[in-house]
Amino acid sequence: MSSTEELLKHELELHWIKGTGKSGGGCINEGTAYDTDKGLIFVKYNSKPEAFQMFEGEYESLAALKTADQVKVPSPIKVLRNPKGGAMLVMDYIDMQGLSLHAAKLGEQMARLHLFNKGLKEKAVSKQQSLHYKVDYSCYVTHFGFPVTTCCGYLPQDNNWMDNWLDFFARKIDQHVRWAEEKYNDRDVGQEWSSLLPKLPKLFLDLDIVPALLHGDLWGGNAAETDEDPVIFDPASFYGHSEYDLAISKMFGGFGQTYFNSYHNLIPKQQGFNDRQDLYMMFHYFNHWNHFDGGYKISTIRLMHDLNRKLSS
């Protein structure tokens, strides 16, 4: 038995554990499936020093999505420090394949997820039933943010609570602008952002944005299906504007028009939707730029410039 299996057996209080030979992973993490006396589990690994924080955020994201119970996600089990360096996230194993037959069902379920907190608001009858500072995902959340840091990729998101969505989102971009300036010694990006920022309120006129529980990184690689249901995974959750979750879904494919049609049957587009989608895509271009170097710089700056020009007219 390997040292990893010994650690898992001890920490999860298992009688036995055996690798299934099934594995997975991407550009950030690797993962392995195990059979145990408590059922199948999937273990994600990352050797970076910041992996424990990253996996803690994913654990809480899965816990929040599980509590909402609107779309299928793996059940989180435990976050462990790896004696060899980094950390591990243990969750239950779901046998799944690429999203295909259940795309429309996923669109409806994601809309219901985004409406979940609004429904809690409507049911709340006292301040004791609404909170924004504890980990209790069955209560109405009044602010924008999340109880813990979550990571989009391996970069941490500042999820400290704020009562204004645009201020919260602008802080996310500020963070990436600072990273781009420091990492690439790029000053053009800060100037473009400083010019764009004061114009952004034009995109949110007459909108009443109720905090929605978001997946946070729902591109095609983070959605799949079983024979019966769609599944989402690898979340970087927080409470934000529901439209935010749609932007990255359009960037890299994997979601057909049936997904979006089904979603908008429950949450129709509001005026300015397309421009706000460009704004939210801008975050993800920044995120890819700061993960994978300068290949995404051109797309990021072009999007900022186009929004700046459009909002100046």
TrEMBL record:
The alphabetical list of record keywords is: ATP-binding, Kinase, Nucleotide-binding, Transferase
Root EC class: transferase
Q: Which reaction does it catalyse?
A: N(6)-(D-psicosyl)-L-lysyl-[protein] + ATP = N(6)-(3-O-phospho-D-psicosyl)-L-lysyl-[protein] + ADP + H(+); N(6)-D-ribulosyl-L-lysyl-[protein] + ATP = N(6)-(3-O-phospho-D-ribulosyl)-L-lysyl-[protein] + ADP + H(+)
One Gene Ontology CC term in the entry: cytosol
Coiled coil regions in record: none
ATP-binding as UniProt keyword? yes
Q: Which SUPFAM superfamilies does this one have?
A: Protein kinase-like (PK-like)
Q: Organism's domain of life?
A: Eukaryota
Q: What is this protein called?
A: protein-ribulosamine 3-kinase
Gene Ontology MF terms in the entry: ATP binding; kinase activity; protein-ribulosamine 3-kinase activity
Q: Which PANTHER family match?
A: FRUCTOSAMINE 3 KINASE-RELATED PROTEIN (PTHR12149), PROTEIN-RIBULOSAMINE 3-KINASE (PTHR12149:SF8)
* E.C. no: 2.7.1.172
Family per UniProt? Belongs to the fructosamine kinase family.
